[in-house]
Amino acid sequence: MKKLLVVIIACLAGISARADEGMWLPSLIHERIADMQAKGFKLSAEDIYSINQASLKDAVMMFGRGCSAELLSGEGLILTNYHCGYAQIQKHSSVEHDYLKDGFWAMKREEELPNPGLSVSFLERMEDVTSIVLRGYTPDMTEEQRIELIRHNSTNLIDIATSAGKGLRATVEALYYGNQYFLFVYREFKDVRFVGAPPTSIGKFGGETDNWMWPRHTGDFSLFRIYADKDNNPAEYSKDNVPYQPKKYFKISTGGIKEGDFTFIYGFPGYTQEYIHSEGVRYISEISDPCKVALRTLRLDIMNKHMSKSQAVRIQYSTKKAIVANAWKKWQGEAGGIKKMKTVQTNQDYEKRFIEWAKGTEYEGIVEHIDSIYKELETHHFIVDIFSETAQTIEISRLARQVSGHSLESVKNISKSFFKDYYMPIDKECFVALMKEFGNMIPDDHQPAFYKEQMQKYGKVETWADSLFANSVFADEAKMESLGENYHDVLIHDPASIYYIEMQNWALPHLNKARALNRDLQLLYRTYMRGQMDFAPDRTVYYPDANLTLRVSYGHIKGYSPYDGAYYHPSSTLKGIIEKDNPEIFDYNIPQKLRDIYHNKDFGRWVDERGEVPVCFIATNHTTGGNSGSPVINAEGNLIGINFDRVWEGTMSDIDFDLDFCRNISLDIRYVLFTIEKIGGAAYLFDEMTFVE
Ligand code: ARG
Ligand code: GLU
Fold this sequence. Notes:
Low-confidence stretches: 1-18
CATH class of the largest domain: Mainly Beta
Largest sheet: 11 strands, antiparallel
Bound molecules: arginine, glutamic acid
Helix content: 40-55%
Radius of gyration: 26 Å
Strand content: 5-15%
Number of strands: 20
Shape: globular
CATH topology of the largest domain: Thrombin, subunit H
Structural class: alpha+beta
CATH architecture of the largest domain: Beta Barrel
Distance between the termini: 41 Å
């Protein structure tokens, strides 16, 4: 908030703001283009987003439901992160074909591997539909009536939009807490095949230790290809499908980068809360983040212990662990960043000024009202957080919940894929650790009666766990397989089902209460958001919070100083990989091939002016989760990299962006090409790409 004011004051003073904060709507980018061009960008607003001609948006897509990706060729070849394709790579892997360990490179089209369930979506168009969505609204309506009206009007809009062609999908999304509504129409392709990825030792180099950190040396990329029917339309998988021919793909810049260069990121950021009340910030940074981190530390220690002992367990738990560890580390950075930035205090000061200003306006009392709801919400929110990080993470109880209500056949299918990646000792040890900590975190008078009874019955958590895991059908593959017609009875009386249901019954009233209070909050935020805009009426510095819709963020390549006495350069090289290389440590044990290449200086055309192969770089672009895989584009509109992370001193940017500490981390496109050629031996893929200096 403070920064917003500084920006406004700077604007009023006629100084061009160099904030770099913001995730802008592509269809409104003409409002920002002058600023972008002043900072070096050479293209026009129409080049970024157009519904009349091919534009950069046609080369960007949502990958799955939480990542971004971009087209590299006229034959449907796409680039995303290694961690975005990770679940697919893992699914294709086994101890015999360990693509995680060895990498995978299709050497011809027929070797590209299909991925049922994976899809990519291109934005066809977006449109402000606020007046249509709110048609029929009258101020005397309740919030429920308003929601119903919006649902009705949106459904009509979506039906019309999606009937216009093949593979269309549409959503109506609220912006600024429902002060504005936009229609997004996507074209979704469902035949997406796996083309190639480096081994984990490159694609996840540095593992969880380097994750969210700079300096970084992770080759976080994977390649896929979109297939379409013979008319170039989206289609379900078929071996007769052909590579998709897009309207637009990125030209690749091999000319390199330097500090100060303009950078532009085009992708699908997931969720931010830039206009949040100080009480919301306090709950996140002082209560929620630290507690969730503590619980996840327990689980991660247990997973790590078992994964380091067995290759099979390492493969089984690779995706699960990455998901747990990723947020675990981000939350630590976020809580630390908010503390360092004094965001709670800054927002409180802002709110005081707002309260003064709001007197006698329609915004009078709004800040105080939000404050009181947050205070009421705290206990409920906390219990929901603890429930979701304890009982909901026990794998057998998740399975129990997942199969409930299914037919016998489907129960067996679900359990089969469950056991492919299940290792009971991990689950059991997690249960013990989490249920112990549960007793410490939840005050006696809030603990579920069930928990107390079990503790009394068994004396200690270990004995409870022995009994639960020995007697639950869900922990035993053979028993699940031999379930017969009475399966329903067996499963509902199973101790894992009972455990889950009892814990859920405890959490449910809190969950419902939290939901209701959050609904009230949303409503108040709708007014507060408008108030914030009126209070400091400079429209151009406001951007809607991220909501997994296509956004533009622009900035420049820049180092940073995380703390006194230290300065980080903006670019890393292969030299740093060799410095970190350690055959003793799984995450730092690089392929021998890479060592040999470095030793022989066999860098080919990928060497930079330092005589090294560039690997990663940082910039000031405002990004968040979902931006992984987004293209990083230079002033000329060519691809220089692929976004995959942020520095953890800056992960509070979801709440409070700061130019001194917030940096996004990208993979230099030249390291992608180097790896394809030198490690994968798949330089044949270059034939379909377009390189520019
Ligand atoms: N931190 C990045 C993101 O939020 C990368 C995560 C994948 N890498 C990992 N080591 N877990 O998604
Ligand atoms: N790695 C994140 C992702 O998967 C991007 C990092 C971030 O949160 O900025 O989207």
